[in-house]
Amino acid sequence: MTYREGLRAVTGNGEYIDDLPSPPGTLHMAILRSPYPHAVVRKIDVSEVRRRGGVAYTSEDLLRVVKAPFPNALGLPIDYYPFAVGKARYFGEPLAVVLADDVYKAVDLLDYVEVDLEPLEPVVTIDDALRGRALVHEKLGSNVAMRKNMKFGDVEGFFKAADDVVRLEFKFPKHTAMPLEPYGVLASWRGDELYLTANFQGPMLYVYFIARALGLSTAQLHIKTPRDIGGSFGIKYSIYPYAVLAAASSRLAGRPVKWVETRQENLVASSSNGERRGYVELALRRDGRITAVRYHFIEDVGAYLRPPEPGALFRIHGNLNGAYDIKAIEADYTVVFTNKSPTGLNRGYGGPQFYFALERAVEEAARRLGLDPLEFRIRNLVREFPVTVGSQKFYETPTGGLYPAQDYVTVVKALEPEYRRWQEEKRRGRRVGVGIAVVVEPSGTNLGYVDVALDAEKRKYPHSGAGEYVTVSVDPNGVVEVFVNATNEGLGHETALAEVVARELGVKPEDVKVVFQTDTDKLWALSSGSYSSRFAPVVISAAIEACRRLKEKVMLLGAHYLKARRVAYSDGYVVDLDRPERRIDLKRIASAVHWDPGGLPEGMEGGLVATAYFQPPTVRAPVGDRVNSSAAYAIQAHLAVVELGDEGIKLVRYVVAHDAGRIIKRELLDGQLHGGIHHGVAMALYEELRYGPDGTPKSLLLDTYGTPTLAEFVDVDVGLIHFETPAVYLPSGAYGAGEGPVMGAPAAVANAVSDLLGVPINELPVRLEALI
């Protein structure tokens, strides 16, 4: 079957935010941003802009429309608006907007905005934040947003009894997701109702945030996405402040407003992961077993606590033991504010930095004990799955995660031939290093994980959102339509859904129309959207359930039309079991239902449509500090080989062995794995959002950010080893796979460089000049 989205992309027929026709009278928005990371806003004068024919608004104007700040997950007294109010708290924070009929005129008119700012001492580093000499938020009285300590199992007892303890300090940098398409918003009003088109990731919590900020009922808000989105990797979750900014400007101007972010704006003021530093301690037995682990993490969330932060620390809460059978865990977390751009979702949300810390510590522990790093990992892997939910076996982690049964040992051992081969190359004198990382990839986020950031007594309501609605219908011509309220980010979801639904209903994929697009005027759930690798375990499961419900009605109709007592559904036909030669196909049934609803059996409603909501059965609200933070978990083992040449360190070989459950479509799975590997390698060797000592961003262009080109990857030999253990508790049988590579690659590459140079690599990106 043709890759539907791919064909649109390569033939230039995609529909992205800037492709949409603008309504008549649309004004284009340009944003004046703060040139200081921390400054009091004394005065902003836009009169000259207005004199020259432009439209301009300051925070004073915009606050006539924006009624409330955005909420934060910790309930802190912080006023976060889409623009600076009183003072700017990060370089690039919006100060004012200029609107004009032409985007270039709007940008030119920014020069005529007069601004009086009083620079303040910036809070640039985590150490600055902890010292508290300058405060990002005076109301809070501190730069510390959260301190939380959690213990699971007898941590003190295991560490006291340990034969050895390994401690590894680390630092993971701030970096962005770098989607091909940056943010874009088109806002217009019809009376008191707001119509927004933007490249959101899905309805999710946007509806609540935007409506609350503008003082609207959610019934007054209509959000759509274009048919296609040029990537996100999580970053477009954080577009909603700009949606409010455009909506407020449109309300004041009385005309539609359009804004498309530039690449420099994206680098400076868009969402990113937060810098994380701290240490990991492993309690070790002499026989090479890890008995307990301690995490001490300090997270820099930037200037504001933007929901779902501090989620980066908790999204992987259910899998804090990684792939290892570790009996006790302590997690000590501190979250701080700095005068940097706010943080948010980024591919693998919280996973790359977590596994970098854990897998580097595991590597150093193997060396301390004099054990082979691969053998040391295999010795500690999860092997038993003693918990039963329904008919599925699970391993329950100390923090509440439920790992479905897989053969971890076989998956990890699949790397051994490559591992030994490259070790031999090294012994023969080739300047290579070999690194291993083993990760458990969580997929299908349980939104309740964010609650763990709060003490149990402070949680107002239980949360366990992870489900999805899918609607399947059949038109009078027998064409099947599938609707999912999410966004098409180029991941092949249309193609995969068409094939799955076609198999379930016994029709041709060409007869299945897939609408994978956000539209809040249609059915959606709080957890709806494209994120956290939820498509395979959750969305496809909901689609299968919807197909099965539809087939039940089709069989009742088939029995009616065939006048049969017993029927079955097979390959698109309802078959009379007593007289198998008599059968009726789905198209004929659909035609009869639509053309003659008056002829239906009494009590049966017309139409052929079924909607299913699938909530993974393992997902529940947190109990205390324990939560199964994802619907599914899958094992991945990574091997990286780096070589030292005249031009520095180069990746020459990368292998992933994994078990993602049932493989829905191999070509798309392979593409996800390749993309995730490259994304994670870029984190390890190239990319970083750097800041000067005064808090000014230094990564203003692609080359200064460090983004690699295809040239850096064209010679990398990538190998994929697939295992397939279908999940019993998910109708799709599938787990996520696209975020695991970006979680494992930074650690695997760092371990390879450490093996190559014989020095610990505790900070990314790897900078050769600092190591030799």
TrEMBL record:
Gene3D superfamilies, alphabetized: Aldehyde oxidase/xanthine dehydrogenase, a/b hammerhead, Aldehyde oxidase/xanthine dehydrogenase, molybdopterin binding domain
GO MF terms, alphabetically ordered: iron ion binding; oxidoreductase activity
Presence of the UniProt keyword Oxidoreductase in the record: yes
Keyword Oxidoreductase: yes
Highest taxon listed in the record's lineage: Archaea
InterPro entries tied to this protein: Ald_Oxase/Xan_DH_a/b (IPR000674), Ald_Oxase/Xan_DH_a/b_sf (IPR036856), Ald_Oxase/xanthine_DH-like (IPR016208), AldOxase/xan_DH_MoCoBD1 (IPR008274), AldOxase/xan_DH_MoCoBD2 (IPR046867), AldOxase/xan_DH_Mopterin-bd_sf (IPR037165)
Keyword field: Molybdenum, Oxidoreductase
Protein name per its UniProtKB record: Molybdopterin binding oxidoreductase large subunit
Species in which this protein is naturally found: Pyrobaculum ferrireducens
Lineage: Archaea, Thermoproteota, Thermoprotei, Thermoproteales, Thermoproteaceae
